Amino acid sequence: MFGRRKKDDNLWKLEYDDSVYKIYDWDKNLTGYFFPNYDINIDEHDDKSLAAHEIEDKLIEQMNKEKRIVKGGNLMLPMVKLQLLDNTEGIHLDYAISSLEESAQRTRIWKQWIQDNHQSFNIIGSSIYTAREDRNILSIVLGIGSDIILGEKELGNNLRPLLNRLHQDELI
Predict the structure, then answer these.
(1) Strand pairing of 30-36 and 123-130?
(2) Segment 120-132, tens digit of pLDDT
(3) Can you give the residue range of the structural domain that contains 81?
(4) pTM of the model
């Protein structure tokens, strides 16, 4: 119909919070984070009365308000839930093996997806981290090498094709 948006246009919402962009899905669940590469040189700032981190914070805020272009950043998403750590009861050996096998398979799927899609989305690297909130979750960080305009709407428009593909391929 007239004026209707495509289904994928409403899947993702970004929210700027203290130099980082939080990514929410259509149900308002936190899906991931985007950390822009700000590439700041605090020596060029003229207010020497502020501490280095205060100057950096001020410059980052200004860059976001002015919707500046940055050279990429890092997209952090959940990759796999181990379901093995922090159990108060013992874990049955078969359960542990099954969980590890499922996690290894999902990790292989991620690896293949990155190999197949790194050029399309200018993914220049990836790393795995234990999530801070839940040690059972391994997060993947995708290095994005594209020029990106800061701002919730602008960054959302830039990341939408990548997020849609990851969702379509059942990785997020």
Answers:
(1) unpaired
(2) 999 999 999 998 7
(3) 7-168
(4) 0.87
